[in-house]
Fold these 2 entries.
Entry 1:
Amino acid sequence: EPEVTQTPSHQVTQMGQEVILRCVPISNHLYFYWYRQILGQKVEFLVSFYNNEISEKSEIFDDQFSVERPDGSNFTLKIRSTKLEDSAMYFCASSEGSEETQYFGPGTRLLVL
Amino acid sequence: KQEVTQIPAALSVPEGENLVLNCSFTDSAIYNLQWFRQDPGKGLTSLLLIQSSQREQTSGRLNASLDKSSGRSTLYIAASQPGDSATYLCAVRRSGYSTLTFGKGTMLLVSP
């Protein structure tokens, strides 16, 4: 069964450093998403992406964040200058249509020191 | 702003029991509701998606119901097994948007 994959599974970085989280969505899906979950808190929406542009974003998704689909298979989330409060599990998801079931990847656990 | 609440926060039951997990949401203008399972330190596995026009959806031992007007959904698990132990999350999608708003989840422990 096709699944969403994410790399790396864990990343430790120093405050102020740039990180890039990578995702490979399910191949025939057209909508892509990033969510995050701070330890002990709810899963929160960050951004959705369709047709090579951002379709929706939350107030969390400020200028420090950017997304890109650099080729036909990868979908990336970049955090330009990490802060301590960016420490969280980051989930990528994809769906066939905007209102279809979203399938989530296993997540990348980011720790900012 | 949509708020999603799940009760109880944690539940412990012996194997074989039937159980109900509750989810409530404040804005009834939803397009659909999705139930997920999350194992510790892992990603989210989609269990059921129920459209706003539907009253319930079933998959194996799982049955999800939706009462959109009252802002409630339940997930019924029949004949629970230790392998069902996980955190169960509900998430709603607003009409016209693709984003999901999540509850905090119910942590379920099924003991043998």
Note: Chain A has a mean pLDDT of 94.
Entry 2:
Amino acid sequence: SQQGEEDPQALSIQEGENATMNCSYKTSINNLQWYRQNSGRGLVHLILIRSNEREKHSGRLRVTLDTSKKSSSLLITASRAADTASYFCATDEYGNKLVFGAGTILRVKS
Amino acid sequence: DAGVIQSPRHEVTEMGQEVTLRCKPISGHDYLFWYRQTMMRGLELLIYFNNNVPIDDSGMPEDRFSAKMPNASFSTLKIQPSEPRDSAVYFCASSFGLGTETQYFGPGTRLLVL
């Protein structure tokens, strides 16, 4: 079952703007990951943040993790049309497997 | 490495027919996962293997679904008999080390059951 909850469900922005997506989960975790899925393709891993980390950067991506609030955010800076995709968070809340959220659909208009 | 390989990429079949989906994980990865993605239910984990052994098949929807991993480089997901509600995109993914580390997804098999 889907446990992670992304917010918003859909987001439409102009090229060059920043995009922020949020993820909430229910129980303790060891790590949280973000994945991207382009239309008709498989999921691609973007970034992994561990429970003892608060912030992590990768290129134009910035991920934060607040374990006290059981939430994470993914920030994409200076968005491009190629960033148009669905973004999923995944947690290891339930043992040795990942549970994926329902995803945020991001549309970047050029 | 070529990444996770899945075949076929598209499958159209009639209700009642047997469907076999195939997956070749990344060499050296010891976890293999089968997922199903639909608009209604999102991405669901069906079953996963560790070192070719099925660990958790609680996501397999019915007895009509079965999965095998005869060796470290090959896995199959079989649906027999298929039903229209099985129409979905089926993904295979693999990972190294713990099952909760980075997973590498294949391109998926788009299944349509008429």
Note: Chain B is about 0% helix and 55% strand.
